[in-house]
Amino acid sequence: MVKFTARLATAEERDNWDALVTSNPSGGNMLQSASFAAVKSQHGWTPRFLVFESSEYITYNLVIEKRLPLLGALWYLIKGPDVADPAHVPAVLDACRDLIRTGRHNVFAVKVEPDIPADDDVDRLFHNAGLIKTFDLQPNDHTAILDTSPEPNQLLRNLHSRGRNAVRRAIREGVEVRRMEPTDENFRQMYQLMAHIEDRSAARLRSYEYYSRFWQNFADAGQGRLYFVYEDGEPAVGAFVINYGLKGTYKDGGSKPKRSQYGDSHLVQWQAITDLKEEFGIVEYDFCGTPPSDRLKDPTHQHHGLGLFKTSFTKTVTDFVGCYDLPLSAWKYRLWNAIGEKVARQIYWRRHHQPFY
Q1: What value does the mean pLDDT take over residues 69-80?
Q2: What pLDDT score was predicted for residue 354?
Q3: How far is CA 205 from CA 109, 249, 258, 265, 341, in A?
Q4: Is 75 inside any structural domain?
Q5: pLDDT at 343 > cutoff 90
Q6: Cβ pair 255, 237 in contact under 8 A
Q7: Looking at the predicted structure, is the pLDDT value of residue 70 above 90?
Q8: Nearest CA-CA partner of 271 in 311, 225, 214, 317
Q9: 3-state secondary structure string, 168-195?
């Protein structure tokens, strides 16, 4: 069995964090990035940069920490740990437990969320390691992922027919996709487009401050870009996409209802995909959120409409394992699970009008 040790990253490692994370076994995740850590540091969380080492490989993982009255700290390995094999997750958590004890970090539970496809064997493995399944937090715990490794013409042919036809028609009819500068004015227009989506779904937007900080951080790092399509002189479709290592992600999107340009939202995605492929050599593009694969055709699911759009590019939907908790203090975790988490989320929402996580 592989054994890991854990430590906090050095200053030099933190300075080179993104290069190290994207060298992880599965290529890292944008939510483990330095840019995202900086966002969360302004919204009630403390970033911790952890290094797990074994004789086989090293993996670099972001932890965000929330300190709570009476309980101590909750550690959230957001989209981690990034491991070469699901069987390594318990070993990484053993090392994490040792680090918490020896470093006296006073952590009552560790929340993990590895990008590992859901599987009954994996669930049993985690259960046997003392992990407790809990509710999922990130939109892309169920998601459509497009293989972008083929050359562009073949990649277009590989799209689902609905998406491919929409892209081709938009090109024929002269729809223009513009890459926009990361300015406050453009960000505010993007946020307004996202509000239109909220009108048509059960989604709840975070504050403009949160999104603008997120977008600016990734844009400043050379990892994020904004696209618009205009209609009648105003933005009609918007998308903010991210390149992180060899992965592209459709992070945020919005559009006006009742538009006349057919295929405009499809063409935005196609432009982003081909740009990221040409400039960064991405090998996959994550559409960042669909219903679970077994509920794609369920019209009552809150993301049904988004799922229809995203699976018009690829029918492949990946269900990841989602979130599991590792209790480190039995009584504190029972208190947290029974009432503490619910109360913390309610208080945080009343104070900040933002989700706790």
Answers
A1: 97
A2: 85
A3: 28, 19, 21, 20, 21
A4: yes
A5: yes
A6: yes
A7: yes
A8: 225
A9: HHHHHCCCCEEEECCCHHHHHHHHHHHH
Beta-strand ranges (E) seen in the chain are: 5-8, 46-53, 58-68, 72-77, 107-112, 132-133, 142-147, 177-180, 224-231, 234-244, 247-255, 284-286, 317-319, 324-327
Query: For the domain that residue 146 is a member of, what is the CATH number?
Result: 3.40.630.30
**pLDDT (tens digit per residue) in 93-104:** 999 999 999 999
Across 108-112, 313-317, 351-355, least confident range: 351-355
User: Please, which residues have CB within 8 angstroms of residue 233's CB and are 6 or more apart in sequence?
Assistant: none
* Mean pLDDT for the chain overall: 94
pLDDT band of residue 256 (cuts 50, 70, 90) is very high
Tell whether 145 and 275 lie within a shared domain.
yes
Q: Tell me the pLDDT band of 203, cut-offs 50, 70 and 90.
A: low
- Determine, yes or no, domain membership for 357: no
Are 242 and 223 a contacting pair, CB within 8 Å?
yes
Residue type, 79: K
Q: 232 with 263, same domain? A: yes
What pLDDT sits at residue 352? 86
- In order, the DSSP letters of 66-102 are EEETTTEEEEEETT----SSTTHHHHHHHHHHHHHHH
Is 69 inside a domain boundary? yes
- The mean pLDDT of 297-325, rounded to a whole number, is 92
**Same structural domain for residues 215 and 188?**
yes
**Structural domain contains residue 44:** yes
Q: How far is CA 245 from CA 106, 276, 355, in A?
A: 34, 11, 28
What domain count does the chain have? Answer: 2
What domain range is 228 assigned to? Answer: 141-318
Q: Which two tokens stand for residue 156?
A: 């277009």
Nearest CA to 196 among 240, 253, 234, 138? 253
Which pairing describes strands 72-77 and 107-112: parallel, antiparallel, or unpaired?
parallel
Q: Return the pLDDT at 202.
A: 45
> Domain check: are 101 and 203 in the same one?
no
